[in-house]
Amino acid sequence: MALLNKTQIIAADDRDTLDVPVPEWGGTVRLAALSGQERDAWEASLIQLGPNGSVQRRITKGARAGLLARSIVDENGERMFTDKEITALNEKSGAVLDRLFAEARRLSGIGKEAADEAAGKSEATNSSDSPSG
Fold first, then answer.
1. CA nearest to 90, candidates 72, 63, 117, 108
2. Please, which residues bridge with residue 22 across strands?
3. Is the N end or the C end of the chain the one with fewer CB atoms within 10 Å?
4. Beta 72-73 vs 55-58: how paired, if at all?
5. Gap between the Cα atoms of 46 and 48, Å rounded
6. Cβ-contact 116, 122 below 8 angstroms
7. CB 103 within 8 A of CB 111
8. Could you tell me which residues are beta bridge partners of residue 19?
9. Cβ neighbours of residue 21 under 8 Å, at least 6 residues apart?
10. pLDDT of the residue at 56
11. What structural domains does the chain harbor?
């Protein structure tokens, strides 16, 4: 594989999208992988720092809707929800939000499952890797 230069790296289209059927809402939602900047902003929204800069507490309220607000895009790849609309999005069905959240996490490489999948260690591993195989 060829060594990339800076221009090629910046120009690379590396943000995948996924269309997810949401029958409860009467259609399909398009999710986009977060950029590094978007992921940093989402992760920062999940913590409250103390006076010395250390993590004082983790914030879980609105975590799913916060990720989805950054992940749900229109047909042009533009974000559909602003940060001010996270509360409204969080009023939707918890089951639907959970389903979309799981897909958004996987798409953006967030969490242990996504890391395992990227490393080839997902549940769909070769049977010879199992203790009984």
1. 63
2. 27
3. N
4. unpaired
5. 7
6. yes
7. no
8. 30
9. 27, 28
10. 76
11. 15-108 (3.30.2220.20)
Backbone φ and ψ for 124, nearest 5 degrees, come out as -85, 40
Buried b or exposed e, range 58-82, using 16+ CB within 10 angstroms: eeeebbbbbbbbbbbbeeeeeeebe
- Give per-residue burial for 99-124: e unless 16+ CB within 10 Å, then b: bbbebbbbbbebeeebeeeeeeeeee
Count of residues in the chain: 133
Question: Model's pTM, two decimal places?
Answer: 0.74
pLDDT digits (tens, 9 = 90+) for 28-70: 999 999 999 999 888 888 877 788 877 777 877 889 999 999 9
Nearest-angstrom CA–CA distance, 73 and 8: 25
The whole-angstrom separation of Cα 57 and Cα 97 is 23
